[in-house]
Specification:
single chain; alpha/beta; TIM Barrel; 39% helix; 14 helices; two-stranded antiparallel ribbon; 7-stranded parallel sheet; 338 residues
Length: 338
């Protein structure tokens, strides 16, 4: 049985963000729910019994939704801690969860997704109060550390055309709170829209909006550069929705239509085999979308040049770390285009 270093388990199929380029944003087709504790516990037992998570692996408690919206988050963490399973979060920082010893016991990381560093940027993407988000980040970081957490905090700063001048202010904020800072280009992160785009069928108004906000100049170039026989990195991770449907990857919409079965109902080996031999994945790879998703999370050139000037002897090391963090977020995905 294949084991995985990262499994993304959607505990909240609900997101309060209003992102225009994300599957769970303003264009969401359906509203999800929250995983209940009993189902969550059963799913973890199946994962453990079948050794799906490696001994040093981590469960990301997110995919498309906002995990801190879950009303019984503390109970889910108790279940994880009883099994000594490691976990992490990606959050838009619109909410501050109850943080205690249970919250941090096996916590490995928290990734803060930010669409800029001003109210103007938040009005265009997340739709939250910017100053409140900053206070929430500070509160989460400070309280976690007071509870003994020594793991990684990272700000994933999504670079748009309209927030370039804000990037260094966000970097200063991150440094002030000893948070890792990782800026990458925002991408179109909606399965339906990106397929329509590659098929030249995307709505004109949305296409114009994309051209004004996203750095999409390399989209066609990346699509056409996809090598033959490209092996999708998604095969090395698992993603589940809140109903425990084992999804084909973390980029597809939740639900049975894009799953290879249900973890609580179907045979594991059969689902894993189908995951690597189905028409949806074949088309995604054929179109070059898989290659695009996994090769477009790059550090902006102007920021890389600024690093070279500030850290001439450490630039390659820093850029290598940022690239590794960007690749690792395809995880989440769920946070790439937010």
């Amino acid at each position: 049985m294949k084991t995985f270093d990262r499994i993304y388990f959607e505990i909240s199929g609900v997101c309060n963000g209003k992102c225009p380029y994300c599957l769970s944003g303003i264009h969401r087709r359906a509203t999800g729910g929250f995983v209940d504790c009993e189902r969550f516990e059963r799913a973890l037992d199946v994962m453990t019994k079948n050794h799906l998570l490696s001994s040093d692996g981590t469960i990301g408690l997110y995919n498309w939704g906002e995990p801190f919206l879950h009303p019984r988050l503390s109970e889910l963490l108790l279940v994880l801690n009883e099994r000594e399973l490691s976990y992490g979060f990606s959050t838009n920082a619109s909410r501050v969860p109850a943080i205690d010893q249970t919250f941090v016991r096996n916590l490995k990381f928290i990734l803060f997704s930010m669409p800029g560093f001003s109210q103007r940027a938040y009005d265009r993407i997340h739709g939250f109060n910017f100053e409140q988000v900053l206070k929430n980040i500070q509160s989460i970081v400070q309280t976690c550390r007071e509870q003994g957490f020594r793991g990684l905090f990272t700000i994933s700063y999504h670079v748009y055309q309209f927030n370039l001048e804000e990037i260094f202010r966000c970097e200063e904020f991150a440094a002030r709170w000893d948070i890792a800072f990782s800026p990458v280009y925002a991408i179109l992160n909606n399965w339906w829209h990106i397929n329509a785009l590659v098929d030249s069928k995307l709505n004109y108004d949305l296409l114009r909006q994309i051209s004004e906000d996203l750095f999409s100049f390399e989209f066609r170039k990346k699509i056409s550069a996809a090598p033959k026989g490209y092996e999708c990195p998604q095969y090395n991770l698992l993603a589940m929705d809140e109903a425990c449907n084992l999804l084909l990857c973390c980029q597809v919409p939740p639900g049975e239509a894009f799953s290879c079965g249900n973890l609580l109902k179907d045979e594991i080996e059969t689902m894993l085999h189908y995951r690597q031999d189905n028409s949806i994945c074949e088309e995604c790879i054929r179109k070059g979308l898989s290659y695009y998703f996994h090769n477009s999370l790059v550090v902006p050139g102007f920021y890389a040049e600024a690093l070279r000037k500030r850290y001439p002897n450490k630039t390659l090391q820093i850029l290598g770390r940022l690239a590794k963090e960007a690749r690792g977020r395809l995880r989440r995905p769920g946070r790439l285009g937010l």
